[in-house]
Amino acid sequence: MRRFWILPVLALRLSAADSHITAAERTKVLDWLTESRQQFLAAIANVSEAQWKWKPSPERWSVGEVAEHIVKAEAGLFANVKLALATPADPEWETKTRGKTETIEMVMAPRLGKATAPEPLVPGGKMTRAEAREQFEKLRAEIMKFAQETGAPLKEHLAKHPMPMFDPLNAYQWLIYAPLHTERHVKQIAEVKGTSGYPQ
User: Fold this and answer.
1) Tell me: the pLDDT tens digits for 126-150?
2) Which of 38, 133, 134, 158 is 20 to 30 A from 99, alpha carbon to alpha carbon?
3) What region does 46 belong to: left with phi over 0, alpha with psi -120 to 50, or beta?
């Protein structure tokens, strides 16, 4: 008597990963967005003009330059979320992005490793503290609204990353990259403030 393995095949198909973010993932990214916003605003609050522009050494960034980098990166990272969503869904998204969420969570906020900022994200040193705060707040509000409301299948849409270890990332991974990148560089601001010679 022939046996047809229909049910196991159906079970395999039904168990394929969902490309939508889970409720837990949405909560996690919203918490990161809230916490990193608070950290950034606290880091630049009450910073004087002299402190804003002071550099620990010629090759290192000032508090103002780190803040400018954060603002530029925030815009670029969210642009990559939109870029990914504008591309067709990739049927191999699970394979191509497997393990990268965990890697981003592990290395970004704790400030593990060093990276060279892409040229468009290198600060020019001309952004004021008021401009940095205003631009950051505007961008972060837009990202927060998106994270709260999106119902798009974020994980099946990919966009390139310049670093091979991260290339490509899906739209969800680009989304969590933003607050974790901010947390990473808030730690850099703290390092500048803790350097000998920082104006008091």
Assistant:
1) 999 999 999 999 999 999 999 999 9
2) 38
3) left
